[in-house]
Amino acid sequence: MSQLEVESHRPDRSVPGAGPTVHHIAVQTADLANSVAWYRDFLGCRETWSLERFSDETRRRLPGIRRLTEVVSDGFRLHLFERDGLAAAPIDGGPSVQHLCLSTASAEELRRWRRRWLDLFASGRYRFALPDRPTRIDTDDRGVQSFYALDVNGLELEFTYVPGGG
Ligand SMILES: [Fe+2]
């Protein structure tokens, strides 16, 4: 789908599908091995996969990203990732949660959420802390589609469609 097709549309006021569900919480760390060990030992999380190569989009959003490991428990999953230049201890209580990911039931719903973001932004009814528009929708090697968009405070939200729900 071209950028033009994504951007030009009539406003759709309905909420796409039944509403998104939380897919994972992303936590950035200065010491990945330490974090993985702690989540394993404290909450009983187990490692599912790791990545050391990242897309251009990921490296643009998260300069200095080195490695990402997913750990899961029965009720949730975390994406723990290490970046160059992060302080070992948060300064001024700075956040270590980097984004919130919501999963959709279909690729079409994913597109509708992105259009909805653009509609609300264009309405002028909200004050956005940052001017960034949503990223384009990327598809990875496993066919997982996602885009990123900021909330009004600047918190990054990821929307993802995972074929088969995995
Ligand atoms: Fe993510």
How do the strands and helices of this protein lay out in sequence?
Elements: H1 3-7, E1 21-29, H2 32-43, E2 46-51, H3 56-61, E3 65-72, E4 77-83, E5 97-103, H4 107-123, E6 138-139, E7 145-150, E8 156-161
Parallel strand pairs: 1-4, 5-8
Antiparallel strand pairs: 1-5, 2-3, 3-4, 6-7, 7-8
The protein binds fe (ii) ion (FE2).
The site of fe (ii) ion (FE2) has 6 residues, from strand 1 and strand 5.
Task: Describe what you observe in this structure.
- The protein is of the alpha+beta class and 166 residues long.
- The protein contains four helices and eight strands.
- It has helices at 3-7, 32-43, 56-61, 107-123, and strands spanning 21-29, 46-51, 65-72, 77-83, 97-103, 138-139, 145-150, 156-161.
- It has an eight-stranded mixed beta sheet.
- Strand 6 (138-139) and strand 7 (145-150) form a beta hairpin.
- It is globular, with a radius of gyration of 17 Å.
- The chain starts with a helix and ends in a 5-residue tail after the last strand.
- Bound molecules: fe (ii) ion.
- Fe (ii) ion (FE2) binds next to strand 1 and strand 5.
